[in-house]
Amino acid sequence: PGREAIAERLARPLRSLARRRPRVDRSSQPHQSEAVPTEAQRNDLDQRILDAEVVSIDLPGGLLTRILCRPGDLHRMTQEIFNASGRYLSEDFAPRRADAEVHVASEAAAHGRSPASITLSEIYERLVRTLALDDDSVHALIDAELAAEAAVLRPNERLVDLLWKRRMQQLPVLIECGARFPVGFVRGRLH
Questions:
Q1: What's the pLDDT tens digit per position in 130-155?
Q2: What does R_g of the chain's alpha carbons equal in angstroms?
Q3: Of all helices (H) and strands (E), which one includes residue 173?
Q4: Over the stretch 114-127, which tens digit does the pLDDT of each residue have?
């Protein structure tokens, strides 16, 4: 099977677990209204988005959300997709991938760049040094990570609809996606 089929098969159990996860009663916890907005609060926000002069929104965590909560889960999924392609990575890939991202983000900040500006290429350049990967493996790993991301990213339909309404009214919408994902990948997730 292709990478997309493998990613879909790997994501299926995660979706069913997410549906079965018990709901937490936050009624006795402070700031409930901040944690889970009411319908009235969502409607108010919707109207403010439609009425604003300019709207700016982050792509990851805003317009797109992951069905996985922990980055390590995504890195393990990347490893499974990569390994299914006939290559093999050891079990310590997920923590090394996470460490590489932290290191590259720290280096970026030390040089006056935003940690959000780091790219997958920079992260994998760091991994080349720690895992001794060849160029073909690096490209295959980046493809595997994008396939894993594609399997777990979902558009926030409510925001997509609101932003589409703004665009139809020719009102400005700025989407901040950082540099992590290629433009074609981002467009594919929103269509």
A1: 888 888 888 899 999 999 988 888 88
A2: 19
A3: strand 173-176
A4: 887 888 888 988 88
Token pair recorded at residue 63? 């317009």
| Sequence-ordered list of residues with C-beta below 8 angstroms from that of 134, at least 6 positions apart, any chain | none
């994998």: which residue's tokens? 124
Per-residue pLDDT tens for 32-76? 334 567 888 888 888 888 888 887 777 767 778 888 767 788 899
Residue 96, CA distances (Å) to 99, 113, 133, 141 in order: 5, 22, 13, 13
Cross-strand pairs, 57? 175
**Closest C-alpha among 155, 157, 147 to residue 185:** 147
Q: Is 121 exposed, middle or buried (0-12, 13-18, 19+ CB in 10 A)?
A: middle
**Among 8, 3, 5, which Cα is nearest to 139's?**
3
CA distances from 3 to 13, 120, 143 (A): 17, 18, 9
Total count of residues recorded for the chain = 191
Q: Is the overall model pTM greater than 0.90, yes or no?
A: no
Report whether pLDDT(112) > 90.
yes
144: amino acid identity, one letter: A
Asked if 112 contacts 97 with a C-beta cutoff of 8 angstroms, the reply is no
Q: What angle do CA 147, 144, 188 make, to 5 degrees?
A: 25
φ, ψ of residue 10 in degrees (nearest 5): -70, -35
